[in-house]
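Q: Predict the assembly, please.
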Amino acid sequence: SDNIVLISKAFRQQFVIPEFVQFTCKIEETFRLCSENKDGKVASYIPQLAHMNPNYWGVSFCTVDGQRFSIGDDNIPFTMQSASKVLTYVIAHSELGAERIHSYIGQEPSGRMFNELVLNHNRKPHNPMINAGAILTASLLQNLVRPEMRHCDKFQWITRYFKRLAGGMPIGFNNAVFMSEIEDADRNFALAYYMKDNHCFPEGTNMESCLDLYFQCCSMEVTTETMSVIAATLANGGVCPISGEQVLQSESVRDALSIMHSCGMYDYSGQFAFQVGLPAKSGVSGVIMCVVPNTLGICCFSPPLDKYGNSVRGVQFCKALVDYFNFHRYDNLKHAEDKTDP
Amino acid sequence: SDNIVLISKAFRQQFVIPEFVQFTCKIEETFRLCSENKDGKVASYIPQLAHMNPNYWGVSFCTVDGQRFSIGDDNIPFTMQSASKVLTYVIAHSELGAERIHSYIGQEPSGRMFNELVLNHNRKPHNPMINAGAILTASLLQNLVRPEMRHCDKFQWITRYFKRLAGGMPIGFNNAVFMSEIEDADRNFALAYYMKDNHCFPEGTNMESCLDLYFQCCSMEVTTETMSVIAATLANGGVCPISGEQVLQSESVRDALSIMHSCGMYDYSGQFAFQVGLPAKSGVSGVIMCVVPNTLGICCFSPPLDKYGNSVRGVQFCKALVDYFNFHRYDNLKHAEDKTDP
Amino acid sequence: SDNIVLISKAFRQQFVIPEFVQFTCKIEETFRLCSENKDGKVASYIPQLAHMNPNYWGVSFCTVDGQRFSIGDDNIPFTMQSASKVLTYVIAHSELGAERIHSYIGQEPSGRMFNELVLNHNRKPHNPMINAGAILTASLLQNLVRPEMRHCDKFQWITRYFKRLAGGMPIGFNNAVFMSEIEDADRNFALAYYMKDNHCFPEGTNMESCLDLYFQCCSMEVTTETMSVIAATLANGGVCPISGEQVLQSESVRDALSIMHSCGMYDYSGQFAFQVGLPAKSGVSGVIMCVVPNTLGICCFSPPLDKYGNSVRGVQFCKALVDYFNFHRYDNLKHAEDKTDP
Amino acid sequence: SDNIVLISKAFRQQFVIPEFVQFTCKIEETFRLCSENKDGKVASYIPQLAHMNPNYWGVSFCTVDGQRFSIGDDNIPFTMQSASKVLTYVIAHSELGAERIHSYIGQEPSGRMFNELVLNHNRKPHNPMINAGAILTASLLQNLVRPEMRHCDKFQWITRYFKRLAGGMPIGFNNAVFMSEIEDADRNFALAYYMKDNHCFPEGTNMESCLDLYFQCCSMEVTTETMSVIAATLANGGVCPISGEQVLQSESVRDALSIMHSCGMYDYSGQFAFQVGLPAKSGVSGVIMCVVPNTLGICCFSPPLDKYGNSVRGVQFCKALVDYFNFHRYDNLKHAEDKTDP
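A: Predicted assembly structure:
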């Protein structure tokens, strides 16, 4: 019954990628190419990440029609880490509206060489993709969205939201990662105290439970399959292609994609926007969630990271994809004749 | 004969904006709304700009099919100023290729609060939309593209390029502006000497003639009509919709649009990317050239500028357009139901 | 018996300021002039400071011979605040040596416009006069100097040190200020967590008790009389002029004076060094401790502060003093004939 | 007749360094120690400096009584380079007064990590020891001090001033260095244009001739003997110890020493102030001029430079001197018993 959208379309033969089989052949070829790349280092700041198998390599696709395709390690669970920042932002945005959320958080890149400057010139975090911004987003979810909920209920409520974005697919929770993160949280405590001193938080914020929520979201566990459906929901304006449910406001999705485009890949964001031209968000577990608006969602997973903290194979895969298909944000649909329209 | 593309399409009724008349009605309404806005100040650093009539207000559209529509002061000539930076970049890119041009110039925003830092950490100008980058682009055009040409011939050659981008429409030259700019060039001389000291220029660069060429391009004179056709050529992957000529490499256009998206509106670029989500480039004469990829090119012209140096009415017009139509780069085509697809 | 140094010198008529009475007349005149200055605002971030009487105005002198002179509110107790940073630094330096302490903390100004940058390029606090540096100094006193002491004993030990610097004069403790500071400590918690994340602290640091010690030192209570003796001990190479005891290593005093000279007056340090040319340290309670090396120690106290956080009357007094007497570090002793050598 | 000051004092046996012979023995020992140091690289940006013999090593002293002592290569001519910045500043200060000169130029360190920021937040050069500040000082000398003088006469006038500071000793001019500097002046042209754009210069400034004057001062040629007398004039409040002439206002000398103290050794200034604690100024020719106020002037010369651009042996010599004698700005005169008072 989940796939009712897909089936009804199949009958009508109206898929966004008409030649899906040919498309997947090219994906497989690219996947194999990237699997030879042994560069990068697995994140090591907590043991749970350090012990990840560096050979894991999986890619999943989900189109806005609900067509899906996976290859490699598509059912190995990994924690979302920073990829969760997109979800908490888009949920808070959907619940509170653009104006309200952006009275607390900016929407621009922080400038790659000045990462010491925690707040922008308005004394707000630069954007919701950096730690300061995501911690503040957690506080907004806790104190401005249904503030009467107990903390445990709020956690449940967010987990359910994540699940709806994934069309009902399971979302796990890695408690060992959560506990490790909390123990290694000096930097994030520094950010939180600094923001508190600058009156960044909404009234009533309990900093400890706000950081707890932040780390809980980072410790949500998914597979590439699940994550590709979430990405497809974003590609589809907030309507999950599996369930057909409008989970998010389309305006919220638009703003989330804009911010992923300019700020989603750490200090590599500017170059990624130029070369790949797709909204994406990476996490130190080795995940990259990438969105081709109106078309499909992609999730890559491979633990070894480059110096920016992005999955080496994930970045390579996204580049190869855009070199072959006309997915770049500013690819011309008619006159870029050497590229393939899937 | 120029309109052969348009006519052939008209017969086939395959326009990108099927209901063009309804579309233009909405444009007119927005135009009138903006004309009431009396904010902003005309640029005053040279007399030729200071004496511009602040009431001038014109908008022109050109679709990738070659359909055109203008309203207001659409035939008042104005100088391109910084809008020419896009053209010199895309021409140099088309002639030299991405790799070669970006071995001299970066492709990322410079960070809004640190405009004193002339060069990025690789000792290159941050991007071709800032003065340092555009001066360097002029030097590349002079010394790497057909270096045997005399300076006067190179100027002719570039003018002809501009004209081809405009489908043969006339491109003027305002010599009074050029001479004023040269006289008020201290800042740009400082940038050029600083870059020379950092070995930014290709060998053989004559700094005086390079700055001359830079200011000459800024002093090119156009109308909103002409400029909208140039914008449409960019919307159309480098193929001029009026003449049907492939003037630029589609890859070059893609990179130009990426850079316009992140760096085209001075220090307002980040907010413009978030709110409007369209590649655009402004100039202190009051021009804004805006591109809806695969759809149309827009040119607004109104001399009063906001504190960032962007035309007040121009920015307002672009925002209103995106509020009504699904032109924002990350508007969802299906599920943003309150928006109109023209 | 405390004054044995003084008395023995008096017999020999060998005072550093031979005409002490004439000198004090000029001081009185300057004191009255400054008392008319009603500018500045009392610090308001904690109630105990906010409620200070803005009319308090006292100045005390103590020469290296132990001659003393006070005028105005010389026995109103106030908290040392940042002036304590000099004492903890010079004690830690005296106990640990220059090399050891400066392997943890730098010794240069942080640059006035970049106060967001908590650590210098070696990932250390810039100097012991900024909060980060003083928090770290507290940790060195706790963990490297007699680490076996219990926290309460270490506090006693430091208090006794302060008292010895003051020649046995009483040192109080304002517990209300301490408790207020602890409650308003977000900024300092942020700094401490940030330093912890950067491995700035010596092993075994308990951050809570280290911040406690930092705030305890800030909450030590003195009068201008007491503080002028401490300043005189610094003027006298670490030998208290009242008791004759060598309390500090002379090398430690030298380094403390160097750092007070370049970093002691918050963001006004550079201008103060240029105009007044004397090592000084201010605190938000309105205290300024100023040292004329080899000559005398001065303490001014007046709660209203300028925009830099320095006592308005205190700064005015120091400037007037240097305009009249040849106390500026680079005053020429022979050829600055319009100045008085007291 | 020049030595009349010296002779009259000799009769009265009132020298500032009573045991001059013992003092010079220690100097010789230190000199030999430093001569073993082969570190550093000779400046290479112009051929005239690059060809300097790296083995040159000379030191000269001159006390405020006019006693002199030299060792090593004390009569090899070298260009003043940045050491001339002190002289042009102190002359301009003496002629124009503190208020007037500092309405154009600041007086604080620029902050070592932010050397790209040419101007401070008041849009002035940070201080007269950096290139921007020294170029501006040249302009003040040209346009505010006797502006009616022709450029050649102004050059003569300044040369004579330098000569008076040196008690009549000869000052040469190295025209080859001057011409090389002018040819390699891109950076300084950038600074000058940038300042022009920011309206830093006084009215009537001709930038070319101002840069000429700046480079001419840098190309003045001296020996360590000559330079040590100039340093002694600064140590003596502006009165030349050789001629007895009051060449400079004592207030001007005070301000020059303050600025040398905080800004005289390029990016090493902060550490030098802490460790050596004496006002000094270095130049890329390998010169260091160092002042012990009220006592003596020192000039070291050795071409190999460290990474900051300061003479390796010169810095080593200054440190050794302060380790042995109580010359550090904040050495205690009584209680630093392990140090020698010469």
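DSSP finds 14 helices and eight strands in chain B. The radius of gyration of chain B is 19 Å.
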